[in-house]
Design a protein that fits this description.
The protein is mainly α. The chain contains seven helices and no strands. The protein has a domain of 39 residues. The protein is 75% helix and 0% strand. The chain is elongated.
Length: 196
């Protein structure tokens, strides 16, 4: 037995600096599993990071498109506001110049200025347009105007007339509405403008 014990102690003494091969294999398997798990976690984190980058890029491009659309809408609205302000300035100038039909004058001015920059002197432009189109001017009723059946200014609120005038206008309006005849409509319009 002493020889067996001596051989066992001799084996353990001779392998004292070395581990058993199975222990080494177990340790390397454990490190390999840890390394593989770390690689899987790193891949998962990289995939998550890539997904976050894609989401951020998609959101950024969507926000960029929304911003471009909002800027386009703002520019459109700014253009509409400028056009309305320009029309209001034209209306003031036409009224100051003695225009009878401001809406028609503004429509004509808008047509003339389409695609052009507005003139710097709107007052001169309004007067020149009214000089070209004298029928747009508000003038005292001349004998020729009354003979043609044209009355005074058609814009604005008319004073309340006598009830007889109102009945005649109502009758003419009903007749024009029922027949649909252009002659009846013109008769009604002339009567309404002239105040009968």
């Amino acid at each position: 037995m002493s020889t067996e014990a001596g051989t066992q102690t001799g084996q353990s003494a001779s392998s004292g600096g070395r581990q058993e091969p199975q222990a080494v294999i177990r340790e390397s398997a454990k490190y390999r599993r840890r390394a593989q798990e770390a690689e899987r976690r790193a891949e998962a984190l990289e995939a998550e990071l890539e997904a976050m980058r894609r989401d951020r890029e998609e959101e950024s491009s969507r926000l960029g498109a929304d911003l471009a659309a909002a800027r386009g809408e703002a520019d459109s609205l700014r253009g509409r506001v400028e056009a309305i302000e320009h029309d209001r300035r034209l209306e003031r100038e036409f009224l100051a110049a003695g225009c009878a039909d401001v809406e028609a004058a503004v429509a004509l001015a808008r047509h003339r200025l389409a695609g052009q920059d507005p003139p710097e002197d709107l007052k001169a432009f309004a007067r020149a347009l009214l000089d070209e189109k004298p029928h747009l001017r508000r003038e005292p009723a001349a004998a020729g105007t009354a003979a043609r059946g044209l009355g005074p200014c058609t814009t604005g609120v008319k004073p309340a007339g006598a009830s007889g005038q109102r009945r005649v206008l109502d009758r003419l309006a009903d007749q024009a509405r029922q027949t649909g005849n252009a002659k009846d409509v013109m008769t009604y319009m002339r009567a309404r403008r002239g105040g009968i």
